[in-house]
Amino acid sequence: MNGIVLMVLAAVVLAAGYLLYGRWLANKWGVDENAITPARRMENGQDFSPASGFTAFAHQFSSICGAGPVTGTIVAMAFGWLPVVLWVLVGGIFFGAVHDFGALYASIKNNGKSLAQLFDKYIGVTGRRLFLLFQWLFCIIVIAAFTSMVCGTFKYTAAEAGGIDFTKSYAAGCAGTISILFTFVAIAFGYVQRKLNLTGVAEFVAAAVSIVVMFALGMQFPLYLDLNQWIAVVMVYLVFVAVVPIQVIKTPRDYLTAIMMVAMIVCAVLGILVLGVTGRGTITAPMFTGFSTKSGMMFPVLFVSVACGALSGFHSLVSTSTSSKQLSNEKDAVKVGYGSMVLESFVGIIVIVIAGIMYSDMNTAGTGALNAGVASTPFQIFAAGVARGMTAFGIDSTVATVFMTMNVSALALTSLDAVARIGRTAFSEFFAASNDALAIQDRSGIMRFMGNPWLAIVVTLIPGLALTFGGYNAIWPLFGASNQLLGGLTMIMLAVFCKCTGRRGFMLQIPVAFLLVCTFTSLVQSFIGCATALASGSAANVFNTALQLVFAVLLVVLGLIVAYHCIAEMRRREPGSMADEELEWTELGRKNVAAADADAVAPQVSDIAAAE
Q1: 567: helix, coil or strand?
Q2: Chain centroid to CA 101: how far?
Q3: What angle do CA 466, 427, 456 make, to 5 degrees?
Q4: Which residues sit opposite 293 in a β-bridge?
Q5: Residues with Cβ < 8 Å from 465, sequence gap 6 or more?
Q6: Among 174, 102, 158, 140, CA closest to 336
Q7: Cβ(115)–Cβ(334) under 8 Å?
Q8: How far apart are CA 487 and CA 492, in angstroms?
Q9: 234-269 burial code (b ≥16 CB/10 A, e <16)
Q10: SS (H, E, C) 376-428
């Protein structure tokens, strides 16, 4: 099949899903563009920070569109490209986008509560603490998997005679320099953005110029470090990016990254079009290879491998921990929540097409997904494929390779930014006295110590660092299963939210049942695999395998307990028995919003006062 045909058909299906199902869902649940969002109600210059619709979309998309759409889809192509395409389309529209939008919407309707705080309100305090522990363990796994991928992309290639092979390492060295520059440029860009109140065209031009300058400097001054050195650099970066206020590094970096990602998507699409028109865009990878490969049976391997391309529980953490605290208008929730997931599914489709075209030249090491030619990682396949397309429409091959290496690393780095911050807050929230949205900022009692953000991020990164040395191939099955289980648990909570607030939640039932069965099956398989390897003495890294075994057991036990509590609450709760927002926040909301926009908010304040 010509790659153009598959890409266009998938784009039409995804666009229809957004325009029809996404908007229907928003109407069914009741998106209110006149409502006061938590970002405006509780603006504090730290986590609650109103942003434009595009900026919020940029943050959400760049945070969720990590390594999953690249790694997961290519690994799953061991079963052929058709099953992966079908799961990306069906899963993206009816599972992933509903999940992302639902989590964002529920948080907005509850004063910007995090996912764990929503569990507290609708499931109970026991459910909150158990879920926070699950969430923290999951964040550690994500940190390990994505750090391994990023650092593996940046590390230099050793020459046969020893030392550095500068020719083969050039693109990785340039991308590494650019990524380091990115941090400092993001800080400067964010400062100028706030100081000069840049918006619209001026904001975009400033960002584009910054990216070009970074790109030029990176190509002139490549940085050559080995794997362990890059791991150290990334860990130091995560310590700071997870603690400083979100608008200092994270928000401006996401804006810059989103522009890069859009440019990458455009280049990939143009490349596929040029290759297809010139007869070089044929998908040579097999359409279907069978229901079983050396990785295991299609169920559950396919559905936990694709992860971010179809559904990702990690997205709910982004939706509730950061994005819900940035929306200035509730109407943007559909674009930010549902729309960003649909766009990520399209990225997954592009990856499938690129990998299918590259089948005759490259294959993924250890997965058997693309089994002809030189062994390559999924990132290398995607980067090389898009670079080939860019070369076909006139871009210099070196520039194209550096551009793509930089982009694929940015995919994972932006997710690392978000998950490190989420892991840090999950650790602190576990010890918080209540489920209030601002409880984590309380510095009394035990929170004086456990709520310290520097302590929380260090405690989170240490086990993540230990797992990193196992490599992403070893960690990915555990990440995929725990990720989809998180998605299933989130959707159960959303079903309880819908029932308690009188909303319709029938569209969540099939996804919940499928995800729970699929993920628990995969986690049990991971447990059996690790236990067998340890018992037989075949484990290459005994410590890392044992650590994965511990994580698998904890995730299964915690997942079962949380799921039980959710189902029990679902049966016990009466329809329409709970209001969205708690009255204790109204005074804070009245004070902050009235100061910013007294005339527009006055009627709503009167209504709140009357209700009290």
Answers
A1: helix
A2: 14
A3: 70
A4: 296
A5: 144, 147, 231, 235
A6: 102
A7: no
A8: 9
A9: bbebbbebbbeebbbbbbbbbbbbbbbbeebbebbb
A10: ECHHHHHHHHHHHHHHHCCCCHHHHHHHHHHHHHHHHHHHHHHHHHHHHHHHH
Q: Which residue has the tokens 């943007």?
A: 332
Q: What does the alpha-carbon distance between residue 276 and residue 259 come to, in Å, rounded to a whole number?
A: 26
Tokens representing residue 213 in the block: 């300058």
Residue matched to tokens 């520039």:
399
Q: Which long-range contacts (CB under 8 A, 24 or more apart) does 48-54 make?
A: 48/112, 48/325, 49/246, 49/247, 49/251, 49/325, 49/326, 50/326, 50/327, 50/328, 51/251, 51/326, 51/327, 51/328, 52/199, 52/328, 53/327, 53/328, 53/329, 53/332, 53/335, 53/336
**How many of the other CB atoms lie within 10 Å of CB of 494?**
28
Residue 224 is predicted with a pLDDT of 93
Could you give the CA distance from residue 438 to residue 347 in angstroms, rounded to a whole number? 35
What's the full length of the chain, in residues?
A: 612
User: Between the CA atoms of 367, 370, 374 and 378, what dihedral angle is there, to the nearest 10 degrees?
Assistant: -70
CA distance 430 to 447: 10
pTM: 0.83
Separation CA 143–CA 141 (nearest Å)? 5
pLDDT digits (tens, 9 = 90+) for 547-575: 788 888 888 898 899 889 888 988 898 99
- Asked whether 555 and 523 are in contact (CB, 8 A), the reply is yes
Q: What is the pLDDT of residues 98-144, one digit of tens each?
A: 999 999 999 999 988 888 889 888 988 888 888 888 889 888 988 88
Distances in Å between the alpha carbon of 223 and those of 134, 212, 229? 37, 18, 11
Tokens encoding 94:
């009816």
State the Cα–Cα distance between residues 64 and 103, nearest whole angstrom: 13
Tell me the β-bridge partners of 362.
374
Tokens in use for 257? 């990254």
